[in-house]
Structure formats: C-alpha cells, structure tokens
C-alpha cells in the first residue's frame, strides 16, 4: 500500500494544534506533532488519532531549541522520508503594555513564536524541496495585521511571520513548495472555556458574525491549502476571524 503523506505540526497537543492534528488524520495524512509540557494530553491524542492507514505521534521538543529541532527533523525524515507539509502552530503570549514589558517577556515571545519558525523551516526545507510538491503553513494572528494593545511582542512576531512567508514563497516557488499564512481571530480553546458569560459576550461583540471561531474553522482552511484547492496558492494570508478585520 502507498504510504500516506505526513505532516509536521508544532504545538499539536492542545487548542488549534490539536484541531489540526485531528482534521489532518481524518483527511488521510499521517502526523508528527510536537509539544512542550502537555505529555499526557499528547499521548492521548496520538492514541486517539492512530488509524489503520496512518500514524500519529507526539514528540516532546522545545521549538526554541535549534539543535533539538534539527535532531527531531532528521530522525523523522530518516524514518518516514520527506514530509509533505510543515505547519508552524506553536506560539505563546506574554502580554504587557510596552511601558512595563521587560526584556524577558519580549525575548520569550520572539524565541517561541518566530525563532521556532526559522528552526523548523530551516531543518525541513531541504526535505520539503526534495518532494517537488510540498506546503508550509504558518499560523499567525489578526494581531499581526491590526495590532492589539498589550501585545506588541506578540504582534511583532505574528506580523513577521507574514513577511517571512512572502519571502519564502518567492524563494521556494521553483521547488513547488507553497508557503501561506492562516491568521485566526478569536478561537474557542481551553483559554476561552474559562471565561464567564459576560466576558464571552464582550468577545463575541467584537466579531461581526457574533460568534467565536472553532479550531475546526482553522483546520478546514489548512486542509484546503494542503489539498488540490491550494495547488496554485502561495505567499498569501488567509484571515479567519468572523469579519473582525473587515
Ligand atoms: P495553546 O496555548 O492552546 O497551545 C499552544 C501550543 O503550542 C501548545 O500545544 C504548546 O505546548 C505549544 N508550544 C508553545 N511553545 C512551545 C515550544 N517552545 N515548543 C513546543 N511547543 C510549544 O494555543 P492556541 O491553540 O490558542 O494557539 C495556537 C496558535 O494559534 C498560536 O501560534 C497562536 O498564536 C495562534 N492564534 C491563536 C488564537 C486563539 O484565539 N486561540 C488567535 C490567533 C492566533 P504544551 O501544551 O506542551 O505547552
């Protein structure tokens, strides 16, 4: 039987990442995903997503650690061959007004949200290019497009991902590696599950569609970009925000 295409997803144990993993497996892709601290959640997700035709494995790997990312990428490519796609999803926030934002908060966000994208892309590019048909999706945010008070560090990384994506798309077009951004608005995750009705209403009121997005909304766009629908699309940003930036 032909081996299923496999996808490398960073930060796949929870939230949007877990939604991506579930949808990818449903669509017939095998998945290697990384996590940092969510070991038991990662193990349960990998077990849930294993099918007869595909594999799904979680790996503890700090995406800020260049050497660790290189080692994981090399061992996966040795075992499974070149991946079909890379989805850079792992990200953190360390919010504060710039007046009081210390250098630790600034650098932590830059390292986790931006250096990580360089690490995975650099490690996997030769393998993706070798495929002759491959994709990279970078999960940015509407904050990278319109900014948000208290998130100058986060906004800087999410905007940088868009510029990096455009450069990579032009650079990698000749290898038929397509590079795109998905920029989510407010998505229902564990974080929003802890909010009360009043707080949720406040969030919904920011959105023209008057509802929050789901992890499936993001995953569906990713699957579209990886499939035939995305074969002539590169260097673009797809905003999924219920109209927030309209
Ligand atoms: P979560 O906080 O729920 O999950 C983040 C994931 O990233 C976790 O699995 C975490 O691992 C992993 N992670 C963080 N840092 C590292 C690291 N250094 N190495 C490996 N894994 C790491 O986030 P969301 O699902 O909410 O967000 C996912 C992406 O979507 C982020 O890039 C975020 O910026 C973006 N986004 C989210 C929005 C939202 O409304 N939720 C809106 C716009 C953009 P572990 O669990 O092991 O700690």
TrEMBL record:
Q: What is its EC number?
A: 1.1.1.100
| One Pfam family it belongs to | adh_short_C2
Q: Tell me where in this chain the Ketoreductase domain is found.
A: 5-189
For biological process, the GO terms are: monocarboxylic acid metabolic process
* Tagged with keyword Transmembrane: no
What domain of life does the UniProt record list for this protein's source? Bacteria
Query: Which molecular function GO terms apply here?
Result: 3-oxoacyl-[acyl-carrier-protein] reductase (NADPH) activity
Annotated keywords: Oxidoreductase
The family note in this entry says: Belongs to the short-chain dehydrogenases/reductases (SDR) family.
Entry protein name: 3-oxoacyl-ACP reductase FabG
Could you read off the lineage of the organism from its UniProt record? Bacteria, Pseudomonadati, Pseudomonadota, Betaproteobacteria, Burkholderiales
């Amino acid at each position: 039987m032909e081996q299923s295409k496999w996808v490398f997803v960073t930060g796949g144990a929870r939230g949007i990442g877990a939604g991506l993993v579930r949808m990818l497996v449903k669509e017939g892709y095998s998945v290697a995903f990384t996590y940092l601290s969510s070991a038991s959640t990662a193990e349960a997700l990998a077990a849930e997503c294993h099918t007869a035709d595909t594999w799904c494995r979680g790996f503890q790997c700090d995406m800020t650690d260049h050497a660790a990312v290189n080692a994981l990428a090399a061992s996966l490519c040795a075992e499974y061959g070149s991946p079909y796609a890379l989805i850079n999803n792992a990200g953190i926030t360390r919010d504060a007004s710039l007046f009081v934002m210390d250098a630790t908060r600034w650098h932590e966000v830059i390292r986790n949200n931006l250096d990580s994208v360089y690490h995975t892309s650099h490690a996997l590019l030769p393998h993706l290019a070798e495929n002759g048909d491959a994709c990279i999706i970078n999960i940015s945010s509407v904050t990278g497009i319109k900014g948000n008070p208290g998130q100058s560090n986060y906004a800087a990384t999410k905007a940088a991902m868009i510029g990096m994506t455009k450069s990579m798309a032009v650079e990698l077009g000749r290898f038929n590696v397509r590079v795109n951004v998905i920029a989510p608005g407010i998505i229902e995750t564990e974080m929003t599950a802890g909010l009360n009705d009043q707080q949720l209403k406040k969030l919904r009121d920011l959105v023209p569609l008057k509802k929050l997005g789901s992890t499936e909304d993001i995953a569906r766009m990713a699957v579209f970009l990886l499939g035939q629908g995305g074969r002539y699309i590169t260097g673009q940003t797809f905003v999924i925000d219920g109209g927030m930036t309209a």
